Amino acid sequence: MKKSTITVLAVVGVLVLLVVIAFGWGIGTYNSLVSTQENVDKYASDIQADLQRRSDLIPNLVETVKGYASQEKEIFTDIADARSKLAGATNMQESAQADSELSSALSRLLLIVENYPELKSNENFIALQDQLEGTENRIKVARTKYNEAAQEYNTKIKRFPSSMIASMFGFDKADYFQASEGAQDVPSVDFGA
């Protein structure tokens, strides 16, 4: 073989090797993005499951309180409305907003309970309150895990060179679970009404 043929074959071989390496890198990056995105989706689902668990516990808690505090109708309506919004939420932001409203209504309900000492000592109420507290802890953990997964995913889709693969295949930024505006405010309860 001539020297020029060997040179051409070497150049072609190097180019083929570079294409194979680039293709392998692209596949690996794509698969990593898919795995990270699935993690975000899994944790979002965990939040929804925990919110549903809490939502399922609330009617029992409300019925128990109603037996003692039937005149507190507004709070019962607020809880029902917030549960409906949570059930109808279609994305993380709507879930966060509805969750905030439900948490606020539950806080007001638990403050009302302070006016009914016999309710506070009721075994059903105590058991429901314990389950609700455990569920609130689960929700907090699920939110934290979701936000950590969203951060990892968002970082991957923004970093070069994986950002090229992310933009080619339409990997969009994941929303963080954030408390809605005013969620940090202490709910006001008027026992004089």
From TrEMBL:
Entries under InterPro entries matching the protein: LemA-like_dom_sf (IPR023353), MamQ_LemA (IPR007156)
Keywords: Coiled coil, Membrane, Transmembrane, Transmembrane helix
GO cellular component, one term: membrane
Cellular localisation: Membrane
Membrane topology: Single-pass membrane protein
Coiled coil feature spans: 125-152
Similarity comment text for this entry: Belongs to the LemA family.
Protein name as catalogued: LemA family protein
